[in-house]
Design a protein that fits this description.
With 101 residues, the chain is an alpha/beta fold. 50% of the residues lie in helices and 13% in strands. The protein contains five helices and three strands.
């Protein structure tokens, strides 16, 4: 139900991005990516959180509550929210990914 709610938000532009959490982040990221318009990235640190937005225009961050410490998770969320999509050469790849929906 959570992924359906987030998908509806992404489709209607209620939010630019979202954050989902489960034990490892694996299950929710797989489920989220089944929905049109979602580009969910399972990240493990602020570097992967930054690149997920910058290079892949991720609009949903998946976190593992059992595998991340509080400070690391908070830093990842801050970085994810502050990072813009770089576009350029990355836009072609994102367009290809989105074309298979």
């Amino acid at each position: 139900a959570l992924c359906m709610t987030l998908r509806a938000g992404a489709v209607t532009s209620l939010a630019d991005f979202g954050i989902i959490v489960c034990g490892t982040g694996i299950g929710v990221s797989i489920a989220a990516n089944k929905h049109k318009g979602i580009r969910c990235a399972l990240c493990h640190d602020s570097f992967t959180a930054r690149l997920s937005r910058e290079h892949n225009d991720a609009n949903l961050l998946a976190l593992g509550g059992r595998v991340l410490g509080k400070d690391v998770a908070e830093d990842m969320v801050s970085v994810f929210m502050a990072t813009d999509f770089a576009e350029g050469r990355h836009k072609r790849r994102v367009d290809k990914i989105m074309s298979v929906e």
